[in-house]
């Protein structure tokens, strides 16, 4: 059985869809009971231990995270509790169960000074509290249990919850002009693709640290431009710089991840980000949200 945390988030919802398609047995949990999820606070170690007691669990997939990059600057304790302490404890529970453990990290562990895609062995140097909490979480998990997958990804978007693509679409409904930063470059990643490729990676049993994001690279401006053109927005899109928005958390200028290690292992390449956005928009349309 699979134990899924953060099941109401973008990635968690797509894992549920995938497991339903595959006929996999799973338990879906989230902080708030909703959409069939069981309420579970993964920051409470004793509660989680009691929850898994007596259950035959083969895989634990942690999709829960503190993802509010700017708010983390003032909520450091919360960020570290969810992004570092909780994954470590879940890894320890997986070890006790003899189960595979999977958790997620981010391109925010890098400082953006490299001018080519980041590999797993590249030195980390997070610029924000969020990035630091994720970086320490990676190290804590890999140090706690050798049957763990730590998967870094970037700029995730999906049907569940809010994300940059959805924000762009919502802004376009009420604005004739938008200005989007062109000095942050990485790659948008579709949560469905991330779930599917993660599952393939898990099946290999080759534990460790991996990068998984869609192919290609884009600035936030290029991503927004593609979305707006795809929905035939008639407004004016302008370029801006990150410094103009005076955000609490510092962002890397370049944080594209190299997914070749995982792709070679599972024998297929992640789809291009534009193809991913096409399928996301189609999914939105099918759901009556576009």
Automatic annotation (TrEMBL):
It is an enzyme of class 1 (oxidoreductase). One of its GO terms (cellular component) is cytosol. One of its GO terms (biological process) is dTDP-rhamnose biosynthetic process. Keywords: NADP, Oxidoreductase. Residues 2-284 form the RmlD-like substrate binding domain. Belongs to the dTDP-4-dehydrorhamnose reductase family. Catalyzes the reduction of dTDP-6-deoxy-L-lyxo-4-hexulose to yield dTDP-L-rhamnose. This is dTDP-4-dehydrorhamnose reductase. It comes from Orenia metallireducens.
């Amino acid at each position: 059985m699979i134990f899924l945390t953060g099941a109401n988030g973008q990635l968690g919802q797509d894992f549920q869809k995938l497991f339903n398609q595959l006929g996999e047995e799973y338990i879906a949990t989230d902080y708030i009971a909703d959409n069939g999820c069981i309420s579970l606070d993964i920051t409470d170690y004793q509660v989680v231990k009691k929850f898994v007691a007596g259950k035959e669990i083969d895989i634990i997939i942690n999709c829960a995270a503190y993802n509010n990059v700017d708010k983390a600057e003032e909520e450091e304790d919360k960020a570290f509790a969810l992004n570092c302490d909780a994954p470590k404890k879940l890894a320890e529970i997986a070890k006790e169960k003899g189960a595979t453990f999977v958790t997620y990290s981010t391109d925010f562990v890098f400082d953006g000074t490299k001018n080519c895609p980041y590999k797993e062995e590249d030195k980390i140097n997070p610029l924000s509290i969020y990035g630091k909490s994720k970086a320490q979480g990676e190290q804590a998990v890999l140090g706690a249990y050798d049957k763990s997958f730590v998967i870094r990804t970037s700029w995730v978007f999906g049907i569940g919850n809010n994300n940059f693509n959805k924000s762009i679409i919502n802004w376009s409904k009420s604005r004739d002009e938008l200005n989007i930063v062109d000095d942050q470059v990485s790659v948008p990643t579709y949560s469905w693709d991330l779930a599917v490729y993660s599952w393939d990676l898990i099946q290999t049993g080759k534990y460790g640290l991996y990068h998984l994001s869609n192919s290609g690279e884009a600035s936030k401006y290029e991503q927004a431009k593609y979305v707006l053109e795809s929905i035939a927005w008639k407004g004016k899109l302008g370029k801006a710089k990150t410094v103009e928005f005076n955000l609490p958390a510092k962002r890397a200028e370049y944080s594209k991840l190299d997914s070749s290690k995982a792709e070679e292992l599972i024998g297929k390449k992640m789809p291009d980000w534009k193809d991913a956005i096409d399928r996301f928009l189609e999914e939105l349309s099918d759901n009556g949200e576009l």
